[in-house]
Amino acid sequence: MRVGDLTIVDKLLIFPVCSQNRKLVLAALSEAFLRLQSQGKTKLTANPFVLPTGVTKSKTDKYKSTINADGTVQPWYEIQDTETNPSERDRRAFTKEERDIIIRAFYESNKSNVRQAAPLIEFLFLTGCRSGEAFALTWNNIRFDRNQIVIHKSYAGSIKQVKATKNSDTRLFVMYPRLRDLLLRIKPASVNPASLIFMDVFDNIFNSGTLGNIWLGNSVKDADGNTIKYPGVVTQLVESGAISCYLSPYHTRHTFITLQARAGVDLVMLAGICSTGVDVIMKHYLEHDKSATPLNI
């Protein structure tokens, strides 16, 4: 797509705005193009809003073995990660006891905004879904009659839009007793099926920034320029020694997958309900049990 002698991407690259704003605009345009393409409303086959940074690999390419120049094959699990998201590379998980300590701390907080987030935190720990998927959930996604949760959308705070999930899929998550009880407990007596399940104290949709502030904490400068730190719930638990270490909100996903896998859940089923692959679970999510020993066989 061209405007004059320059493409839109060219213009955005030279336009005098900050890099972050350019990325946001391109991300929004790219998302709009993909929607038009999926609806058959454009004849273009190539996305004109992708930054010209070279060939982009598919999400699954990094889990494929590589053939070296000498003809030898290097297995995928020996290939060094190049991802920028440290949470993807950090396979650590909370223990079951630490998970429950964190959930309880949110419910028992003396701050209303933290208590408001408690059901969201519990839901993330009990499903392993990505936070954006939980942010976008509405009550018509919950099928109590079929004991299912339909997950097919995600909220992206960077562009302030609800979009497709990371893998653009629709999946059914079968509710088990504790998860079903949580949703029944927080469901209003009278509810609009299209209303969001999880909202902050201002009745706004949650976003990663809000979640990070109550999980990790934040800091502000006073009138004298001094930095005042407000530690989040998990930070306080680490500082008090209640849990062993700090892990990001994304590790609610690691924790769910790790606890389920250690309990013997079928990895193919687990990969399906978490919208990932068994190889991805092994490489990125599943932390080995350091207390376990080989069987005496």
Can you characterise this structure?
The chain is an alpha+beta fold and 297 residues long. The chain contains twelve helices and eleven strands. The longest helix has 20 residues, at 19-38.
Structural class category: alpha+beta
Helix-strand sequence: EEHHEEHHHHEEEEEHHEEHHHH
Main sheet, how many strands, which sense, barrel?
A: 3 strands, antiparallel
Shape: globular
User: What is Rg?
Assistant: 22 Å
Residue-averaged pLDDT, rounded?
Answer: 81
- Low-confidence segments, given as residue ranges, are 1-6, 11-20, 53-60, 80-84
Which strand order does the major sheet show?
5-6-9
Helices, by number, come to 12
- End-to-end Cα distance: 65 Å
In percent, how helical is the residue content? Answer: 25-40%
Proportion of residues in β-strands: 5-15%
> Tally of extended strands?
11
